[in-house]
Amino acid sequence: MHYCSSMYAPLKRVIVKHPKDAFRSQAHLADEWKTFNYLSEPNYEEALSEYAEFVGILEKYVDTIDYLPEADEVGLDSIYAHDPVKFTPSGAIILKSGKTLRQPEAAVYKNFLQDRGIPIIGELSGEAVSDGGDIVWLDDRTLVVGRGYRTNDEAIRQLKEMTADNVDEFIVVQLPHDLGETECLHLMSFISMVDHDLAVVHSRLMPVFFRQLLIERGI
Degrees (nearest 5) of the Cα angle 112, 74, 64? Predict the structure, then answer.
């Protein structure tokens, strides 16, 4: 099976985490939202209702929807299923979050993929930390990684090694300090690819070289 690196090709199969399994209950949210540095306590029933709409849209267009399980070792942030793993054309890379509270998500995700026979081509080790939100495929052979508070140099070194067979151009983008270490700023905070020549960006946070590179490529 070919595992897609594209961030804009039609989805055939997707992995999500349902708020009933990430948030669990209003009481659980009340206990945990400050620990995870949320701006306010989420409304559990509202989250379920909004998610039902979201899944309804997915079901119209996506053949297979896989749900990550509820797990005691992970917290509220596990709803962001994009971050603990990055897919390449050869299989998955298991990451290790730059937010310590989120690091247990990687092991749960790894077991989930293994149970489904999805190949794992590598796993960050040692001092390396990285979130999926810092890793963007510009196209099938160009990988961009944001260097910031959630992704460090050692992770970038390991990712470059692991993706060598699938990547012609590996671009490192230095992320700004912006609101500081405790806030969540990812590469995808200022770029989302929506087609081969179209991106949604927040220019004020973008390094000049990267913005120019996109324009030069006709994006």
Answer: 35
pTM of the model: 0.93
The single-letter code of the amino acid at 188 is M
Tell me if 177 is assigned to some domain.
yes
Q: Confirm whether 2 is domain-assigned.
A: no
Look-up of token digits 């929506």? 194
pLDDT of residue 182 exceeding 90, the answer is: no
Q: Supply the pLDDT for residue 181.
A: 78
CA torsion sign for 6, 7, 8, 10 is: positive
Farthest-apart Cα atoms in the chain, separation:
51
H helices of the chain, where? 19-22, 26-32, 44-61, 105-115, 153-162, 208-216
Residue 2 has pLDDT above 90, yes or no: no
Tell me the average pLDDT across 93-105. 95
**How far is residue 12 CA from its own chain's centroid?**
18
Going by C-beta distance under 8 Å and a sequence separation of 6 or more, which residues neighbour residue 15?
Answer: 66, 67, 68, 81, 112
Query: Which tens digit of pLDDT belongs to each residue from 54-83?
Result: 999 999 999 999 999 999 999 999 999 999
User: Is 8 among the domain residues?
Assistant: no
Structure tokens at 51: 């998610």
Asked if residue 188 belongs to a domain, the reply is yes
Q: Dihedral, CA atoms, 8, 14, 17, 18, nearest 10 degrees?
A: 100
